[in-house]
Automatic annotation (TrEMBL):
GO molecular function ontology, one term from the record: metal ion binding
Gene3D superfamilies the record matches: 3.30.300.30, N-terminal domain of ligase-like (3.40.50.12780)
Domain AMP-binding enzyme C-terminal, chain residue ranges per copy: 530-608
EC number(s) per entry: 6.2.1.1
Protein name as catalogued: Acetyl-coenzyme A synthetase
Gene that produces this protein: acsA
Origin superkingdom: Bacteria
Residues that, per the record, bind CoA: R190, G191, G192, R193, T310, S522, R583
PROSITE patterns linked: AMP_BINDING
Chain positions found as N6-acetyllysine: K608
Catalytic activity: acetate + ATP + CoA = acetyl-CoA + AMP + diphosphate
UniProt modification remark: Acetylated. Deacetylation by the SIR2-homolog deacetylase activates the enzyme.
Residues annotated as binding Mg(2+): V536, H538, V541
Amino acid sequence: MSANVYPVSNDIAKGALIDKAKYDAMYKQSVEDPEGFWGEHGKRIDWIKPFTKVKNVSFDAKDLYIKWYEDGTLNVAANCLDRHLAKRGDQTAIIFEGDDPSVSEHITYKDLHERVCRFANALKSMGVGKGDRVVIYLPMIPAAAVSMLACARIGAIHSIVFGGFSPEALAGRVEDCGAKVVITSDEGLRGGRGVPLKRNADEALSHPGVKSVEKLVVVKHTGKDIAWNDARDVWYHEVCEAASPDCPPTEVNAEDPLFVLYTSGSTGKPKGVLHTSGGYLVYASMTHQYVFDYHEGDIYWCTADVGWVTGHSYIVYGPLANGATTLMFEGVPSYPDASRFWQVCEKHKVNIFYTAPTAIRALMREGESFVNKADLSSLRILGSVGEPINPEAWEWYHEHVGKRNCPIVDTWWQTETGGILITPLPGATDLKPGSATLPFFGVEPALLDNEGKELTGATDGNLVIKDSWPGQMRTVYGDHERFIQTYFSTFANVYTTGDGARRDEDGYYWITGRVDDVINVSGHRMGTAEVESALVAHSKVAEAAVVGVPHDIKGQGIYAYVTLNAGEEPTDELRAELVKWVRKEIGPIASPDYIQWSPGLPKTRSGKIMRRILRKIAANEYDQLGDTSTLADPGVVDDLIENRQNRK
Ligand code: PRX
C-alpha cells in the first residue's frame, strides 16, 4: 500500500460540484433515507409518466426482487437526445477520432438525433419492436452509439459483443439472447490493420445453433470487399437513407430492459447481465456528473470500447444524458506511436480523461518523452477503471499526464453494478494511490469473513454491498436462478461482488482482486473456466486448468496447465496450435501467455483441482506452496515445479 496522501487541491475544490461537507451530508442522507434521496435524484432525467414509487427491493435469496421507479415510464434515447435539442442542438454530442489520426468528425446533438431516428425506423421496418434483441458487433465508430440509441428509442434490447471476440463467442451470445437483427461493419480498424468483422459475423450466423437472426445490417466503414447474402444482408447507409427522420420515442417502463451485456463468471459460459431503463439511466448520469465533476462545456473522453460496460455507461448513456460532449476513439494507444492518447487530448482539448491501468502501464514503459510532446494543459480530471492501479502507475499518471494538477478518480465497479460504486469525488476526497477510496451516494459496502460475519474497522474481507442502488443489474438474461445463485447465495441478504478488499483506518477501500476463478487480463474480465473449456474442446487435450499469473503490463496473464490425451506429443508446434485454437474459440484477449504440459494436475482425494498450488507455481513462487499433504498424488507437484514456464 502506498503511504502517500494527496489532499484535495484548493483549485479543484473551488469549482467542484461536491466538496467534503457536501459529500458527507449527501452520503448520510442517501443511506439513511434512500427513498427520499433517490426520489429527489430520480428527477434528474425526464419521465413520460413520473414515478410515484422509488424503491422496492428484497435481497432475500428466497424472494429476491429489485425494482426502482417501477411505475414511471420514459424513453432512454429521448433523454440522451431530444431533451437537449432546444438548448444544445448545435453542440457537439460525439467527437469521433478515427484509427487514422487524420480522420475525425464532430456530430451535433441535432445530427445524432436524426441518425438515431432514421436507424430506429429502419429497425422497425425490419420488424424489430419492444423487447426484441439486437446484437451489435461493431468497431468504435459513431454507428455503434447510433445503434444503441436506436434500439433504446424503440424499446428493443441491445447486446453489444466486443469486436475482438471470435465468431464462436459471437455465435454463443447471439444464440443465448435470440437476436432478430445483428449489426456489424465490413471491417474494423485497429492500429492500421483491418479486423474482418463481417466475415466473423457470417461465420457466427452460419452456426447451427443460431436460428433467430433475420437481418444482418452492415456498416460500410473501410470499403473492403465482403461476401454478401442478398436474402439477409442490408447496408446500414441504404436503410437509413430510405427511412424517415421522424421517429417518436417508444414509452417504456422504468423496469423494461435496456440492454444485455455478456460477462464472464467463475463457471461455464458467459452470463447475460441485464440492465433496465430508469434506474440505470439515473445512476449512469448521476455518477458521470459527480465522479468526473462534469461541468457544462467539458470535453470528456473515456477510452473504453462500447463492447464493455464502461463504454455503455461512460461513453454513451451517462455523458449523453448529461448533454456532454463525449469522444469516441477507434484506435489503440500505440498507433501511430505511443503519444497517440496525448495527441488526441491536445487535438480536442480534452478536459476529463478516463482510461485503464493497463494502458497507463504500457505507455509508462515507453517513457515520458511521448507524453511531453503534447500540450496537456486542457486536462482537469483523470480517471482509472477496470483493475487495481498499482501505486507506481498511479504516480506516473499523476505526475506526467496530470502534471500534479489533476485528481485521479480510481473508480471501482463491475458490469453488474451498471455504474461506479466506490470512487473518489474530485472536490471531496483526499487521494491515496491505489485506493478506490470511498463509496458513492447510496452505496453501502461491507467486508465479510468467509462465514459471512461482518468485519469492522481496518481489515481484509469479502466485499459485499448491503443494499440496492438504482443501476444494479436485475437478472441474468434467461436464467434468474443463476442470478440468485451467483450474487445472493454465498452470503445472506447482501450483493456479493466476487472481489476481495481491504479497508484502512480512514475507511478507504483497497480492492485486492477477485476471490473467485475470474481473472482480469488488461482490464478484460475472463473466466478461467471459459479458457479451460476452449482448451478441452481441442481433440488432443484431455484436461486443462487455467489460472491468472502476475503480468507487468496486463495486470494478469493467462497460465494454462494442459494434460494431453495418451499418445499425443507435447511439442512447441502443438503449443502454438493451442494458442491459436483459444483465439479462435474466444478471441485474442484469451490467448494463453504460458502453456505448461502437465501429465497430472494436483487434485484432492475427492478430485478437486487445488488451484492455490497452480497459482503459486505459475507465479514462480513454488517455495510457498503450503500444505500439499491432502493431495491424492503429492508427486505431481514436483513435476509441475520442474517444468514451470514462468522462470524469473
Ligand atoms: O475485480 C474488479 C475489477 O474488475 C471487475 C469487474 O470487471 P468488469 O465487469 O469487466 O467491469 C470492468 C469495468 C467496470 C471487478 O470485479 N475492477 C474494476 N474496477 C476496478 C477493479 N479492481 C480494482 N480497482 C478498480 N478501480
